[in-house]
Amino acid sequence: MLSAADIDARLADDIPGNEPGDAAGHGTIVAAIAAGSGSWGGGSAFAGVAPEATLIAVRVTGAAGTISDGDVVLATQFVFERARELGMPAVVNLSLGSDFGAHDGSSELSEALAELAGPASPGRAIVVAAGNSGQLHAAQGPSEAFGIHAERVASATSPARAPLATPFPLHGLDTTDASVFVWLDLYPADALSVGVVLPDGSRIEPVGVDQSRIERSAELAVAIVNGIGDAGGRESVRRDWSDGPLADVLPSVGAAVVLIDGRWPAGEGFVIEVEGEGRAELWVQSEGDLAPEGGTLGALFASATARSTVTIPAAHPGLIAAGASVDRLEWTDYTGARSSVSALSVTPAPELGAAAFFSSAGPNSRGEFKPDLVAPGAFVISALAGSADPRRGAAGIFSGGLCAGLGCQIVSDGYALTAGTSMAAPMVSGAAALLLERRPELTPTELRGLLIAGAGALPVRPDLMSRAGAGTLDVAASVRAASALPRGRDERPSGEHSRLSVASEHAVADASRSVSALLWLKDGSGDAFDAESERVALVVRGGELRSGLARIAPGSYEFAVSAVPPSPERMSIEVLVDAEPLLALELPIDGGAGAGEADSGGCGLGARPPAAGYPGALAGLACLLSWRARRALRARSSRA
Q: What angle do CA 119, 120, 126 make, to 5 degrees?
């Protein structure tokens, strides 16, 4: 452990390599966005959100770039303990995440972190990047959306099939050597079984609840585990796969996992099959040749949807999840050349102030608001670690996009540009630090409420609604909300400035599943109108109120609704204040699993792509967005 004085001394001495380094550049730019002075080279054009905050930096990446759940928890605990010793409040920023695991907040990592910053923990908060998994991609050929999340409905006569494409890796070989992790949520758990069709057409028969199967060949190992609830069964699975992720991530009843590790013909894929009668949601994450960090798109589901792609641990309701918005469309690089986001051929098209095309979408799998809000994350300029400068041969997060695709990411000797929810999270962390500076007694729940209370509405974009959370970060509005006074019954909120938002663009026709909603009451100036909850009434038609109105901050309220089968096509929600109508919206009801529409045309799936088949902008910049907690999958199969 190094103190600030230790670090200054090492930076000042003449011993090569003695100073702390950041070869990737990710930690430096994240820290500087939250609390950097912006003073490199004079001036403060690129200062962080809370430039006078004290930084406690902890490295969690291993030598191979992997991040373990246990190290994330220990690092978070370390920060809170040091802050307690200093007598200061603390915000822990986690610009990392995983697509593999429970997306309802019940993963061991999520719960362990939430316990460190629980509702009764004043002066603490954890802000997590929501993830960069929200983009959908189009195949070469018939238009079909590919992404990391799919939703399927199985019937007694028609099993659900989720094709899993594995695009050719960029190294051009005929074999893919990779690990693929698939997580499934099953509704209802006891009515569905899970199987896999392999690239050669052979089939692993479906595995029912409380069962598991592992099949190995000389080149490939595949494990299916379906909702192990018995303690003895869980230990048996752990023994069979003791050196892989099942030692840490084992699904309980209601979920299943499929783990694939080994080699198979490049460009060929798998099919996840779900038999029975019910619904399944699936998420996929890849490593090895298919790791997005290597410039590929990774394994992707066909007929995918961007919904519910907020990563783990950001999906936990007790953690503050930050999505990304677009705050810059062009910039000048260190050579004086102008670069523009218009070079990105993606839809949803980048629009200033709107949610970013890559930002993971909500809600979490319980229908709760995620991300909580968005902050600038595309495209952000902040501190460049000298050890990550690609002009010096470094292979960090800026190397792939150096003067290619979008243009140079290096804007000066001390600053560089990048994008991702990794950059949005420290924006929110800095804002949380400013609020705690004013009111260190705030609990994590109260802090989240104030951030949501101040969030501003994004441009009206139905295609981006589920990525927007409560809206865009507005520190000044959150500060004003914190000091808002209760309004008397002789005053009435403004219907023009008040707003109502739901966590998803549709409700599912399932009485067991709800959708969260947020209500902001504002006065004529757009400031928080703090009314007692009993003055506000909700009228729900075509559904039912699952949880009543709860005040989360002055003028801000949360509630949840659900659609009860047989449901009409739409649900309406009306807000009344003092029995007078104020706001209303309609929410479509989806009786099945929708397939997403293609968002980006340019990444060849199912056919060997030429080098240009992966857009230079994506390979050079957008694929650098991900900084994910990775789990090594080491199957005990023969690997030549």
A: 50
Find the distance separating the first CA and the last CA of the chain, reported in whole Å.
41
Residue 299 backbone class (left: φ over 0; alpha: ψ -120 to 50; beta: rest): beta
Find the largest Cα–Cα distance for the chain. 79
The whole-angstrom separation of Cα 169 and Cα 191 is 37
Q: What does DSSP assign to residue 599?
A: -
> What is the DSSP-derived secondary structure letter of residue 155?
-
Pairing status of strand 556-562 against strand 570-577: unpaired
Residue ranges of the alpha helices (H) in 483-607?
Answer: none
Q: Of 546, 548, 539, 552, give the one whose Cα is nearest residue 580.
A: 539
Residues of the chain below pLDDT 50: 141-142, 402-406, 592-640
CATH homologous superfamily of 484-590 equals: Immunoglobulins (2.60.40.10)
Strand (E) or helix (H) holding 574: strand 570-577
Q: Are 381 and 416 in contact (CB under 8 A)?
A: yes
Q: What is the pLDDT of residue 61?
A: 81
408: helix, strand or coil: coil
Indicate the SS3 state at residue 310: coil
Q: How far is CA 406 from CA 135, 314, 379, 396, 420, in A?
A: 18, 29, 11, 17, 15
> CB 353: neighbour CB atoms within 10 A?
15
Query: Is 469:354 a contact under the CB 8 Å cutoff?
Result: no
What integer pLDDT is reported at residue 594 of this predicted model? 38
Residue 137, token pair as written in the block = 């991609």
**Coil, strand or helix: which one is 271?**
strand
Q: What is the pLDDT of residue 297?
A: 81
> In the prediction, which pLDDT does 341 show?
78
Pick from 259, 262, 261: nearest CA to 272: 259
**What b-and-e string marks burial along 375-389, b requiring 16 or more CB atoms within 10 Å of the CB?**
bbbbbbbbbbbebbb
Provide the pLDDT for residue 343: 62
DSSP string, 163-215: EEE-PPPTT--SEEEEEEEEEEEEESGGGEEEEEE-TTS-EEEEE-TTEEEEE
- How would CATH label the architecture of 149-303+610-624? Sandwich (2.60)
Distances (CA, A) of 622 to 146, 397, 457: 16, 10, 26
pLDDT in tens, 210-266: 888 989 899 999 999 998 766 656 666 666 655 555 555 678 889 999 999 999 998
Neighbour count for residue 603 (Cβ, 10 Å): 21
- The CATH number of 4-132+313-327+351-385+420-459+466-475, from 1.20.1260.10, 3.40.50.200, 1.10.10.10, 3.40.190.10, is 3.40.50.200
Chain-centre distance of CA 205, in angstroms? 33
Q: Nearest to residue 419, comparing CAs of 358, 360, 473?
A: 358
- Domain residue spans of the chain: 4-132+313-327+351-385+420-459+466-475, 149-303+610-624, 484-590
Are the C-beta atoms of 555 and 500 separated by less than 8 Å? no
10 Å CB burial of residue 572 (0-12, 13-18, 19+) is middle
Cis peptide before 206, with omega less than 30 degrees from 0? no
Q: Is residue 604 within 8 Å of residue 613, measured between CB atoms? A: yes
Q: Give the whole-angstrom CA distance, residue 454 versus residue 600.
A: 33
Look up residue 299 and give its DSSP letter: S
